[in-house]
Amino acid sequence: MRFMMIMIPSPKDDANWEPTAEAVAAMGSYNEELTKAGVLLALDGLHPGSKGARVSFGGGRATVTDGPFTEAKEVIGGYWLIQAKSKEEAVQWASRCPGGDGDVIEVRQVYEMADFPPELQEAAR
Questions:
Q1: Is 122 in contact with 74 (CB distance < 8 Å)?
Q2: Fewer Cβ close by (within 10 Å): the C or N end of the chain?
């Protein structure tokens, strides 16, 4: 099963936040541990929301809003995509992350085609 571990950093000044060298080194070690265990499929950190855009949909059209997003209570700082035998194993990996005070990692299973009924699998083809 594939799981996405989504890093939701503690609330801070999203536009000006910079990681410390120690935090980067600790995260590098954690990522290496995931790699050596053979569970890491992909990972990336994301630029702050102040440099992003949101595309929302309504009435049959798309509306673009450039960051920063002052109403956002949570932002996504990055993600890992891992292969694990169970949600419990994925949660164990997330628990080993060297997150900072207030950081949160949300663990979500990725849909596989086999998770859908046959008629939806056929429609997707």
A1: no
A2: C
